[in-house]
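Working notes for the structural subgroup meeting. M.R. asked for a predicted model of this chain before we commit to crystallization trials. I am recording the input and output together here so anyone reviewing the notebook later can reproduce the run.

Input as submitted:
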Amino acid sequence: MKPILATLLFTGACAHLCQAQKLVDERDQASGWYVPVNVKVTTERGKAGDVDVTLYKDNAVVTSFKAKKGIFSLSLDLDNAYSFIVEQEGYRPKTIYVDTHVPATQVQYGAFPCFVNLEAADKFTHSDPFYLDFPGAIIRWDDQAQAFVPSTGYVTDIQSKMGMLQAQMTPH
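Returned structure, recorded in token form:
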């Protein structure tokens, strides 16, 4: 029993020290750096069930998988362009674009918490589908925030276009 406790304490201490320590001073001192993206999918009706995810890097499929209860994490290599599509039966697929470029001097950054809300597949049946093909968000590095954030201008524009589509469907 004592060896297990000692191992757990040692493991916890190592995890704490590793988190507190800066392991490199410049990015070119490390390889395999990536941006962690933690995704939680919901629907208009609440929690999402299992969702299908397809990850693209520069428009080429990297992988496809099923995420249980709409929760998954991605580890995206630095200095690349990714998009992922989330799909669930009965809902319109949603695409998220992630630009993982960061300044060469940036050696610390946190995971990006990504929340994706799926809308019913028939919600925009009678409207112009043009804007439905655009990503729901564009995520990129923001120097001022020192973090990966959604492009607020883009999100605002897409939300207003989606609002116009919904207004087209609402009888007056």
